[in-house]
Amino acid sequence: MSENKIPFGPTYEEMLHPETIAPEIRAKALKAKEADELDPVNLFNITWKDEDNQVRKIVLPKEITGVDANIVVMLGTYFPSGSHKVGPAYSTLIEGCVDGEIIPGEHTILGPSTGNFGIGVAYICRLMGYKAVVIMPDNMSKERYERIQAYGGELDLTPGTESDVILTLQRTYELKKNPKNKPLAQFELLPNYRFHRYVTGNSAIEAVKGIGNGRIACFTSAPGSAGTIAAGDEIKKAFPEAKIAALEPYECSTLATGGRGQHRIEGIGDKMCTLIHNVLTTDFVTLIKDEDCVRGLKILKDGTDVLIKAGVAPEVAQSLKNLFGVSGLCNILGAIKMAKFLRLGPEDNVVTIATDGFDRYNSVLDELAHRTLEMEDFVLERWLKDIFLDADDKHVYDFRRMDLKEQLFQQKEKDWLPFGYSLEYLNSMRTMEFWDGEYEKYREYDEKIKQMR
């Protein structure tokens, strides 16, 4: 494979610290972000940071959260393609490229997903010159399908919804029998873990500088692929007292109770423990009701007057309209719940993630309107009180003891032995040596990317 075939893209280090990118490339990338989304130089905009190298985030007003702790939300909507999932999509593809396993012009890329990862795969493949086939359930928001097709991705739809992701995995395994098809398997490939532990984890550590005591007391994330929650491994290294809470739909509480059901939180809760979920660092599993997430999104999107009446500064209330999607609301409600459960005070920080913005959820709010009799301001005021201000700390399951974690390890075995992984490999994941060893490989990949580009 000739070196000049490797697409030109950033290292892990450059995604965390965009100020280390060559100045002319950085300037070009920032210009392309506004001018041309499909210019390949946008690969160098895959970062949590803005043009001043500050983490893009918002500290939610206490008039919304109702807790003393600071709820710090990192904003994924500013990534190219509108979601941070573009980061693991790129990392998985570039690692395959520099390892000589994925060759431009020869291989078709498969992206199993319930949405944002699929959009990220279609986008990255467009920029890097690959054909993409996105495998996803046939009951997701139509904005997701349109976005994938707009980037030139093909759709291969499996029956079911958000919580039937196992069917997309089975379909991926079927398609990858053809050696021309290379899956970017977000649920099982460790570049997803590396991206989030290194880039998202260290960005989270930077995000709390100058806020409260400058430490992270808790990190909340709803596992879809369980990539994002890997940030917790790096957070715990910096702040050993930090608690990591995995959030699940109340309607599909597989990790917490082995429960299975349909739910409306697109991008999370997959009736499984994903292969790359490091359950050693998961302290709590917390359940969030899907309807609360959709109604919460309605409040932040359309309840500007209600928020102002509650005491939120008008410019802040206005700025919240487009920053979140349904899973972002799930993460925020989980952060509020954990702040209450852990009895956190004004110096404490809870960090969470908004994977994407509102641009892919119009149809979700349309659907809410269809099944809701009234949505006047007085209704939104009641929702604000019930969902945010009076949030309870129920349905928080403690998994800190090793004997309790056994339930999570067994769920992982049940889910992944049928896909050909050995018990020996799964058992190796029961030690931090495995995860730290996998994490450290980001250094080798940075060297390879530099040499080959």
List the helices and strands and how they pair.
Layout: H1 12-16, H2 23-35, E1 57-59, H3 62-65, E2 70-75, H4 86-98, E3 108-112, H5 116-128, E4 131-137, H6 142-150, E5 154-158, H7 165-175, E6 181-183, H8 191-207, E7 218-221, H9 231-238, E8 243-249, H10 254-257, E9 284-288, H11 290-302, H12 304-309, H13 314-319, H14 326-341, E10 349-354, H15 362-371, H16 377-389, E11 396-398, H17 402-416, H18 423-428, H19 432-452
Parallel strand pairs: 2-10, 3-4, 3-6, 4-5, 7-8, 7-10, 8-9
Antiparallel strand pairs: 1-2, 9-11
Helix pairs in contact: 4-5, 4-8, 5-6, 8-9, 8-19, 11-14, 11-16
Largest sheet: 7 strands, mixed
CATH architect. name of the largest domain: 3-Layer(aba) Sandwich
State the share of residues found in helices, binned by percent: 40-55%
What CATH calls the topology of the largest domain is: Rossmann fold
Derived structural class: alpha/beta
Stretches with pLDDT under 50, minimum 5 residues = none
**Shape label:** globular
Beta strand %: 5-15%
User: What's the Cα radius of gyration?
Assistant: 21 Å
Sheet with most strands: strand arrangement: 1-2-10-7-8-9-11
Number of strands: 11
What is the class of the largest domain in the CATH system?
Answer: Alpha Beta
Mean pLDDT metric: 93
Q: Compute the number of helices.
A: 19
Order of helices and strands: HHEHEHEHEHEHEHEHEHEHHHHEHHEHHH
**N-to-C span:** 13 Å
Pfam families: PALP (PF00291)
Organism: Desulforamulus aquiferis
Domain Tryptophan synthase beta chain-like PALP: 70-356
Keywords: Pyridoxal phosphate
